[in-house]
Design a protein that fits this description.
The longest helix has 26 residues, at 92-117. The protein is built from ten helices and twelve strands. By secondary structure, the chain is of the alpha+beta class. The two termini are 59 Å apart. The chain has helices at residues 19-32, 44-61, 92-117, 123-146, 177-194, 202-218, 274-278, 299-307, 375-378, 452-456; strands at 75-76, 87-88, 246-249, 252-256, 260-264, 314-318, 332-335, 341-349, 352-360, 402-407, 413-423, 428-437. Strand 10 and strand 11 (413-423) form a beta hairpin. The radius of gyration is 32 Å and the shape is elongated. The protein has three domains: 68-223, Up-down Bundle (Ferritin); 246-318, Alpha-Beta Plaits (2-Layer Sandwich), CATH 3.30.70; 332-456, 3-Layer(aba) Sandwich (Ribosomal Protein L9, domain 1). The strands form three sheets. Strands 7, 8, 9, 10, 11 and 12 form a six-stranded mixed sheet that branches. It has a four-stranded antiparallel sheet with strand order 3-4-5-6, with helices on one face.
Length: 461
């Protein structure tokens, strides 16, 4: 039940794992707080002492110097039975601001307490911490505004101030849907009342805007479900899932889901990681056994992620009779920085229909030519992904259609069809209907072939 760098960017917020780290945490609290035996310039004690010394220096120069607003001591929002020692806030604008600030304070305490009760790193814990810290910022703005406003006629010459009154217990709620619903509803209430405050004050306006944004973020609580804590040790494997029906067909791993069938061609994969980052619940990285689970994501979203695979290693087939993947509206060849060519089009390679996506070797080192197999990393291939733009390029009458790739024996890739060559960042390089692309890795006119393959004895097999 603690916070760590997973949830908060705060120096020294390290998880306590054993007696050694517990002692280190206690020492940090003492050193950064008021109990340090030696000098620690960053400690609370030294900071407060510096403020005192600075105030005394200013006062010596100007005895009339007043460093702060005449803020109330022990302000209260209701007439106290015993007025002595308390300041009753009567100014309506100040009272409304303090009331919202106090409610934000109460909610902040609840959020921080709740974050500690959520075990292990999770989006729910992160959200609770982030909302709590940002509520502190809104409280600061509201408190500064209150300190500039009059307390009321009963206390002339005295300004208002936050009373930090918490009308309810601040103990953490049990983790679950009801707690998340409470936070979402409470943030909406805070936003509702914050927008009614006197926004002619820039501080109040900023606070109201911040709380409104936080209320929208708090709606994420209602989208979350309570999940069991997962291991945070990177050496522990994720919990295994039931294996969906899987078969090996023509060297490809075919995995059946209810709506979508995923086909994975391992020999084509260049590990661009679009699958494991775009659909991490479907494509499980670094696990033993079944790693593709098509039913763990919305089918349409999964198909969209599959179409992002540049190599074509991941394909899909619909089982609901819907429209299958279509050729792109523009045939593209992307020149990747120090990497392969990424083709998109209605492709045929070496005379055989291939699909709509492929990554083809341009370093000359692949052991699976004409396809890339990642060897450019091993040979430290160095080639720009930003070739110069051909200024004489005109727009093509047609931009789609068949795209034929004919790898030449011990030579370049001969490409025919309507095509646009683009840089790795998407900038247009050339629009052509045929091109000879270097695949030995040594051309001086990359991405185009200049005949160097013959001089260096390039072998394509």
């Amino acid at each position: 039940m603690q916070l760590s760098p997973n949830e908060i960017d705060l120096r020294g917020a390290k998880p306590v794992l054993c007696s050694k780290t517990a002692i280190e945490a206690c020492a940090a609290i003492i050193t950064e707080g008021e109990g340090a035996s030696g000098e620690s310039p960053n400690s609370h004690y030294c900071r407060f002492r510096h403020i005192r010394d600075e105030y005394q220096d200013l006062l010596a120069k100007n005895p009339n110097f007043v460093p702060a607003h005449p803020a109330a001591t022990n302000p209260v929002l209701r007439r106290p039975p015993i007025a002595e020692g308390r300041v009753w806030l009567e100014d309506e604008a100040a009272t409304a601001i303090v009331d919202v600030a106090n409610a934000a304070y109460q909610t902040m305490l609840r959020l921080i307490a709740y974050s500690y009760s959520v075990h292990g790193p999770s989006p729910e814990k992160n959200l609770a911490v982030d909302l709590g810290i940002d509520l502190m910022k809104a409280m600061t703005l509201l408190g500064e505004s209150a300190a500039r406003r009059p307390a009321g006629p009963s206390n002339p010459g005295c300004n208002a101030g936050m009373s930090f009154t918490a009308l309810r217990d601040s103990a953490p709620f049990p983790q679950g849907a009801s707690a998340r619903r409470f936070f979402a509803e409470r943030m909406n209430e805070l936003s509702k009342y914050a927008t009614r405050l006197d926004e002619s004050d820039m501080r109040v306006a900023r606070a109201a805007g911040l709380i409104k944004a936080l209320a929208l973020r708090a709606q994420r609580f209602n989208e979350m479900t309570t999940a069991p804590a997962v291991a945070t040790d990177a050496t522990l494997a994720p919990i295994a899932k039931p294996a969906p029906p899987t078969a090996m067909i023509d060297g490809a791993e075919v995995v059946d889901g209810e709506t979508v069938q995923i086909i994975y061609h391992g020999k084509l994969c260049i590990h661009s990681r679009f699958c494991v980052t775009g659909a991490p619940k479907v494509f499980l990285a670094n696990v033993q056994g079944p790693w593709i689970h098509p039913d763990d994501m919305d089918a349409e979203e999964l198909m969209a992620v599959s179409r992002e695979c540049p190599s074509g290693a991941i394909q899909y087939r619909r089982k609901d009779g819907g429209r299958e993947e279509q050729p792109p509206p523009v045939n593209l060849i992307s020149v990747r920085e120090a990497g392969p060519y990424a083709f998109r089009g209605d492709l045929s390679i070496d005379g055989k229909p291939f699909g709509y996506r492929a990554t083809l070797c341009r370093c000359g080192a692949s052991k699976n030519k004409p396809f890339c197999d990642g060897s450019h990393h091993d040979v430290h291939f160095d080639a720009s992904g930003e070739p110069p733009t051909d200024d004489k390029t005109d727009m093509l009458a047609l931009r789609d259609g068949p795209l034929e790739v004919a790898p030449q024996l011990d030579g370049p890739l001969m490409v025919r069809g309507n095509l646009e060559i683009i840089s790795g960042t998407g900038r247009m390089v050339a629009r052509l209907q045929s091109a000879k692309l270097c695949r030995c890795g040594h051309s001086n006119t990359k991405p185009y072939c200049d005949g160097t393959h013959a001089k260096i004895g390039f072998k394509s097999t």
